[in-house]
Amino acid sequence: MNAKSLPLKPSSHLYLLFLFLGICVSSAQNNQKRPPNFVIIFADDLGYGDLGVFGHPTIKTPNLDRMAHEGQKWTNFYVGASVCTPSRAALLTGRLPVRSGMASNKQRVLFPDSKNGLPAEEITLAEQLKQVGYSTACIGKWHLGHKKQYLPTNNGFDYYFGIPYSNDMDKTGGQDYKEAANQGASAIRMEDYNVPLMRNTEIIERPADQNTITKRYSEEAISYIKKNKDTPFLVYLAHNLPHIPLFASKGFLGKSERGLYGDVVAEIDDGVGKILAALKEEGLTENTIVIFTSDNGPWLPFKTHGGSAGLLRAGKGTTWEGGMREPTIFWSPGKIKPAVITDLGSTMDLFTTFSKLGGAKIPDDRVIDGVDLSATLFEQQESPRKNMFYYRGTDLYAVRLGDYKAHFITEGAYGQFEERQEHATPILYNVNEDPSEQFDIAKEHPEAIERINALVTEHQAKLVKGKDMLAERE
Amino acid sequence: MNAKSLPLKPSSHLYLLFLFLGICVSSAQNNQKRPPNFVIIFADDLGYGDLGVFGHPTIKTPNLDRMAHEGQKWTNFYVGASVCTPSRAALLTGRLPVRSGMASNKQRVLFPDSKNGLPAEEITLAEQLKQVGYSTACIGKWHLGHKKQYLPTNNGFDYYFGIPYSNDMDKTGGQDYKEAANQGASAIRMEDYNVPLMRNTEIIERPADQNTITKRYSEEAISYIKKNKDTPFLVYLAHNLPHIPLFASKGFLGKSERGLYGDVVAEIDDGVGKILAALKEEGLTENTIVIFTSDNGPWLPFKTHGGSAGLLRAGKGTTWEGGMREPTIFWSPGKIKPAVITDLGSTMDLFTTFSKLGGAKIPDDRVIDGVDLSATLFEQQESPRKNMFYYRGTDLYAVRLGDYKAHFITEGAYGQFEERQEHATPILYNVNEDPSEQFDIAKEHPEAIERINALVTEHQAKLVKGKDMLAERE
């Protein structure tokens, strides 16, 4: 080989070599420095038993099943409340809703005529991540205040596409839902629910076309991921289904053996599959953590239009396990070790875990209920979460500590007969041995009750209840 | 190259070549001709909801979960009866136990003082396969007659290692099981159950050491597979646990968060893992079909010592779904396509499917209730099974046809209060949409009841009830 045939001088070669090495190093540094992306997929009223991998016989969820096989299936994962508004507040603030005022004994959730929303002084996960350079999107149901100052765009999200409250609100006419449900999917008219669909702070469609809404949410999430792949991002995708009224798009309608409810869950599952595929396509899988869970248990009075909590007791609205334990999957190939995790976790922990991973400081001027789950996710270490407080409105109904759960007050869900009852001696279950909460062992384990009582005393000593933000309506 | 340097003449080369080709062809023919091996792993009183992959939160079954992921998870798979003896008769004969006399309204199962067993004229799957050259082993619980003429070795099995009836029989003393269970695993004494362990027709240990029995059954299965790998084989491994009394060996005792019941299931799962590993080691995976299922639903009155039917209603002893639908997995890498199968199947179909695959003729002198599932297993075609008859003793309580199940009679399990009730108009459920059997839709679907009634008429016209083999005791 003749040196003269080279188009560049040897010194130029050296330059190119350094340039090349420089790029490699800087690219590696970027990869090291760049914090992970987060995708939170949050279903609405999906029960513990409603995914294939959580035991449903006829709801087919191949994408979520695969996600669980490749990732971590968490079987003791809780939400902060058993109804929409407080549960969402808990996830986004990392705090029990009783602290933020997003829990009330007068109104269980926000309505289209509610005056207030999430207080401005509350700090959301989106605000946390935005301050450290994340792009942030809220896609789907918000339900933390529909007035402009309460919307996602005023709570740390760069982008919002979705409905501001539940899909059964703004009912303008038509027959009762249960009657329509009895007549089949074609009797459920989206025109009867005048729910607005918003982009940022503008209403872009009213009523929202709920027949295609699940599909559009997944598409919006994918489009946001593709547009924002050059910065770290948070996508909070809060589907407004399978909360009634149930709607599915043409490709799914009438396809599931579980009926319309199964069609809806299959469409959500399909969206999950497409989101994971998009992450793969963009080469983002290893630096993205995806979590799938639900906001509360199944809405049982709606019969086959409500879901199933599987072997767990009761559902939405209650502090039984069926109300607050959710089918949860974490996924991040190469980072999160495939496993079944039976340790405790909570949606409130996402605030703490994702803030830390993202490089945001955890606020120290308030009580944060979330704990950092990253050592469990990445190294399968024991979860730092050892307890769970089950509030209904602003009353503490039950407390779990380790395997034991003590019920101080019990009460049935909406429309289901089980009167509120206070228990002088709490009912005690070992919920790992007895997940269906059937066998009271209070007499055999007074020491467990003592430890739980001590925990409650400590908890209540520090508790400052926020001003009720749900009660006032116009 | 010099021809002279060759140690053999050209003609010898040709000879070697033909020899080599001959071996290839004959080996390929052998592979083609050699029918598949079958391993049936049958748990006792394991509920529909008791495996991780069927939704249990704290029973860890990593091997069965993986088996389901690699194979087919069947979610509408039934046994022929909701208690031990008739369920086992159904599996082995491919016939409803009411036909063989292995069902009775006087005694639900066989006891140590029962006079009879499976009638000699019944043809078992083992007899079918033995006549076409299979090696056949029964390992574990038999429960089809403990007298010599009724034992496995007189019913087509070359080899038997196990207990002849349930592990809670021959109770010789000690406290009531429920009392012992309340005091914990150490209070459950295997000495209180004088159950014999047999090899072929000899008692080799009495009482059977139940602490190590699960482990020994799995080891026996592996040892039999290794010894008999040169012929096609059938291994029927019928664990006698998690039927009470519960026992687990040292490596498992006290390890599960689900308590002793979870320990027991974990040990069965461990055995499954070891059996699959042994099949891999011997290069037998592609020519072996493994099925895992259970004999009936969970024995609920034993509280945490009984299992869970998950979202299905009731358990063992009943004709509700929890009594007769079982967590079922088929596995044969490369042959069985991974899938979740929601079509109907039954343990009775193993008789027909495995007989056909093994090359044995289906008897034509009697009614066989099994159907051939192989097109579903290998090509994911629709299952030919469209219905299921739910007998309790010799009475037909319920019938499933497609999605619909009609209950003509309902009744609770042992020890659980739900009186026998005959329904002039049957209760009707869509068990795919409503797997928990909660919402009677008889009024809305008279056509489904009509079709089921026609099926019952047809069924009963052909039904010859066998002589009751369970009633007589000595």
Report on this structure.
The structure is a homodimer of 474-residue chains. Chain A has helices at 10-33, 62-70, 84-93, 97-100, 125-130, 177-183, 213-227, 260-281, 321-324, 348-358, 374-379, 446-462, and strands at 37-43, 72-78, 135-140, 159-162, 197-199, 202-205, 233-238, 288-294, 328-331, 339-346, 387-392, 395-401, 404-410, 421-430. Chain A has 474 residues and is of the alpha/beta class. Chain A has two domains: 34-381, Alkaline Phosphatase, subunit A, CATH 3.40.720; 389-462, Arylsulfatase, C-terminal domain (2-Layer Sandwich), CATH 3.30.1120. In chain A, strands 6-5-4-3-7-1-8-9-2-10 form a ten-stranded mixed β-sheet, sandwiched between helices. A four-stranded antiparallel β-sheet of chain A has the order 11-12-13-14, covered by helices on one side. In chain A, helix 3 packs parallel to helix 10. Mean pLDDT of chain A is 94; it is low at 1-10 and 18-31.
State the fourth-level CATH superfamily of the largest domain in chain A.
Alkaline Phosphatase, subunit A
The helicity of chain A comes to 25-40%
Tally of contiguous helical segments of chain A: 12
CATH class of the largest domain in chain A: Alpha Beta
Give start-end ranges of low-pLDDT stretches of chain A. Answer: 1-10, 18-31
The quaternary structure here is homodimer
Q: What coarse outline of chain A follows from CA principal-axis ratios? A: globular
Report how far the terminal alpha carbons of chain A are from each other: 86 Å
Q: Give me the strand/helix succession of chain A.
A: HEHEHHHEEHEEHEHEHEEHHEEEEH
Instruction: Summarize the largest interface: chains and residue counts.
Output: A-B, 40 and 40 residues
Tally of structural domains of chain A: 2
Number of strands of chain A: 14
Q: Major sheet of chain A: order of its strands?
A: 6-5-4-3-7-1-8-9-2-10
Report the mean per-residue pLDDT of chain A as an integer. 94
CATH topology of the largest domain in chain A, which one? Alkaline Phosphatase, subunit A
**Beta-strand residue percentage of chain A:** 15-25%
| Biggest sheet features of chain A | 10 strands, mixed
Rg of chain A, nearest Å: 24 Å
Q: What is the second-level CATH architecture of the largest domain in chain A? A: 3-Layer(aba) Sandwich
Structural class of chain A: alpha/beta
